Amino acid sequence: MQNSHQKPTGKIDETSILTKLTRRSFLAVTTATMASCNLFSRSKDQPLPAKPQSKQPSGRYAPQGPPPKNQAGNHPSNFSENAGVTFTRVSVLGNYIAITFDDGPHPRNTPRLLDMLAARNIKATFYVIGNSVDANPGILRRTVAEGHEIGNHTQTHRLLTKLSDSEVIKDLRQCEEAIGRAAGVRPRTMRPPYGGLLQRQRQLVLQEFGYPTILWSVDPLDWKRPGPSVVANRIISATSAGGIVLAHDLHSQTVDAMPQTLDTLLRRGFKFVTVSQLIAMQVESTPETPTL
Ligand code: NI
Questions:
Q1: What distance in angstroms lies between residue 246's CA and the mean position of ligand 1's atoms?
Q2: Would you name the residues annotated as active-site residues?
């Protein structure tokens, strides 16, 4: 479908959608979607719920034998400071993808997910909330110890577009400090809650922290809890090379969906890397057009 917001690359510029909204309608949309991380998430080029790729007789994913393993790779993660301000996906050579989990750490779901990732040799990227890090520091330490990347998802998970520059910086700084206290690492990237960050704010965040803003190319709308098989099929059908998958380890259904999701993507030849590794693989610069 043709879309006036669609770039020749097939990418949607979410920020331009914002400019089309009046402030009043924007606030209405914002209020209606505060429970999610997905305010600007659905791209027209992402198919909605996919048909199941393979039918299990029981309707449930029943893996047989050991899970497939992600191809180990010693990929550098030091991307250039000039790599870009915003990423929804990355142009790479090869079937590399990054899967991201937002809004943790969660005391039960995150450890369960870490077990699934370890069994498949997959390194993921976790956009954690500082308040949740403070409540679950041991889980963050385990996440780091097992080789996953930690990204900044702010201390309080507020919509940053409504905050002053100093409040935005403070909320990110507090989360960065919480991560440092708990696990001794510093995030390299950030994801704004609800995907909401003005272009001007993205520049500020890059300047202040060195964080590119990481959005996503695949959104299963898992926060609506459509059931594990729907979450799995949405991710599987929408994922392509260079993609960044959005998911939430806050929700048990999302974690329940991961064995089928991860195994199917691995069997299709996708190779999982962290967000920083994916950006470091970028083969062509895709500068964002400032629209806000
Ligand atoms: Ni979030």
A1: 10
A2: 102, 248
